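Protein: VOC family protein
Species: Actinomycetospora chibensis
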Amino acid sequence: MITGAHVILYSADADADRAFLRDLLGTRTVDAGGGWTIAALPPAEVAVHPTDEAPSHELYLMCDDVEATTADLRRRGIVVDPVTDQGWGLLTGVRLPGGGTLGLYEPRHPVATEPG
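Structure follows.
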């Protein structure tokens, strides 16, 4: 039985991104040994989209109110891209200290982690 999912982000500054995610998510963290901090994710879902290009994977965080969330992140000194309306949701990007970007969006579609 599958009991969870483990996401790996590759970073040019792993220590900074680990600390950033710990503070951003505010969830439980564990030390897997040797400084490898692992943060719990909020409830998650997975979607499979068709592509004619090489298969790839993406990670998006979800929120209930993207405008309020991005305002809070900016107050905390976090760089956030402008919000765009994608139809299926309001999308932005959160810049990681290591140079990467995490997607962040307010979904307009049914969310699998919420009761039907």
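Remarks: Helices lie at 14-25, 66-75.
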